[in-house]
Design goal:
mainly alpha, Arc Repressor Mutant, subunit A, 26 helices, two-stranded antiparallel sheet, 594 residues
Amino acid sequence: MYVKLIISSSVSRFGTISFTCSRTILKWMRSCMTLFLVMLLFVGSLRAQKQDGYFGDSTLYALSMQMFDSIRTPAFFDMQRRGLERAVATGSKHFDYVFRSAMLSRYEMTGDKPGFLRAADGLIAHYQAQADDSLLYSTWARRADRLLMWGDYVDAVLSLRGMADYARRHRHLFGQVNADFYFGQCYLSNGQDSVAARHYRQAMAGAIRYGSPGLAARSGFNLVNILQGWGRYDEALALSDSLPAYIHQWEVMKGIAVNPVLRVQNAMYRLKVLISRADLPAATAWRDTMLLYNNMYADPSQQEELQYTLARYERLAGNNTEAERILRMLADYSRSRGNQARMARYYRSLADVLRAEGKYAEAADSYHLYAGAADSAQTAASNAQLNRLSRLYRLDELEQEKRVALAEQSRARTLAGSALTVAVLLLALCVLLVVHHRRLRQKNRELVARIRSQEEAERRAEEAARQAKTEQPADELSREMQLFRRLQALLADAEILRQPKLGRDELAEILGTNRTYVADAITACTQKTVSQYVSDMRVKHARYLLDHHPEMSLADISVACGFLSQSNFTRCYRIYYSITPGEYRKLVTEEPVD
């Protein structure tokens, strides 16, 4: 099933920007973007050296264009083979690289990971033999970057280590610059911003010395983003001021009038800083610049971040309605992809916007969703980091053991060292388990406190809303609101809530109305379905019984709240509160929270 995202942003000067993505389409678009950039480089280089006459061979140029047009068809292989044979025969270095690297582009677009890795390793070996450090490290970095995109963090790090070691041994500056940049990418994706920033600074300085303005600009973008996150706005703006010069150098080197991908990135990262500084006039100008270049070429990989930046801008400009619309769409999109970290970010921003609009009940719901998503994202990130570090440490350990074995030529010392290492790892594992257990308990305690605090905030918000509604004459209320009030009063009755089957038909029969009216009333007042709303009421009543009736067992509470089974009760409770009822009762019993 395709999961779709439709995001549109209306702006006064540039009209409407919209994009529709599915998982399959996004993957296809990302591959197309890669192909676009590759072709952009080739065509740009060609324009920059027109006097060479298509690099000396117009036939190879035409064949390369036909090959890329047929990259997904069987005809691609024949054109790639013929082109490479002619490039080798004529000694065309440019087209030799074009036809060799075309295999990587095909495997990227088709998602053939084993094929891509085989082709990349073969091309790396080829350029090592040719002693061509520029093409060697471009290919090597492309291999690591693709592994990182596929989520193979450890394999990407190991590939970069091999590249960095090779570059140091051969004193290749370009290889060290690429290694620093992609190490920065790895550390940034692992949440280690300080280490990432250090590598980006080294990459930027090295790229400037080597004469690689495109890599210097990309390093600068990431540094600006990190500095903005740290609140060092003046430093971020000063760095941002220097980046257009590197973009222009890249455009001149490639013979291209403008690179919209780099220009959009520069404008977007600068806009983020200006929004954080609440500088609306400057932010407006850079918002327009960003959208101008995005209209030239809407890089699919940048659209989600671009829309979130626009939402932040609209909030700064006081357009809370537009900001709310964009954030809701982004939150729905992240939910469909299961990205808890992005969901937490969007729901937190949405809650702030709703609060500014005076929609306190909806803001409370968004804060609740933010808390759940943030907890899930933090747990997932911690587990991922632990797995990555554990695997890297294990690989480091094996490499060290191998070096010791080769150096010492002693089986006895190797076994002793291995035993000591295992003992240290076991001790470290025990310490980690103890620390993890304590942190988990503390996290659960904080979760209980947040649950109670959240419930109190929701109660106050509901009381305020109820008081405001009681002051309004009943005849001025909508039919849905009148029916919803009756429904609230009905579900406040514990005996009614005890009934296991409370669907729209049962509620409609009790209230003496139509089942459609019941569903419409709940949807209009809560944006939930009937089953979701009833389940929420059951869970809230269950928490009240857990707090005030310690003598009741979980099975009794499950029956009292109308759940079909205790397992169903536990599942619903965990979904709503991110903790099981048993864990909640245990924590409250051990350390009551006021």
